[in-house]
Amino acid sequence: MTVHFHFILTPYSPQLNPIERLWRWLKEEVIANVLHEDQNDIAQSIPRFEQYILQHPDKVLHRIGYTA
Asked: Which one of 14, 16, 36, 49 is at 20 to 30 Å from 64 when CA atoms are compared?
């Protein structure tokens, strides 16, 4: 008897990993096309984004693909 394994996912499937969608959202809101004055400004933007997603769980679920 021979056993064959069929891997369903490729070794790296970011499109199937919800955290990757959240990272992309963070980059879009905090880093991409945003002119920050200095490193401290970036460091302050990240907690603001965290607070936003904590206050809007429905938007987070929608953004990562868990709601209609």
From this structure: 36
* Phi, psi for residue 12 in degrees, rounded to 5: -130, 110
Instruction: Compute CA distances 66 → 11, 39, 46, 56, 63, whole Å.
Output: 23, 33, 23, 14, 8
pTM higher than the cut 0.85: no
Q: How far is CA 38 from the centre of its chain?
A: 23
Burial of 45 (0-12, 13-18, 19+ CB in 10 A): middle
Distance of CA 51 to the CA centre of its chain: 15
pLDDT at 68 over 60: no
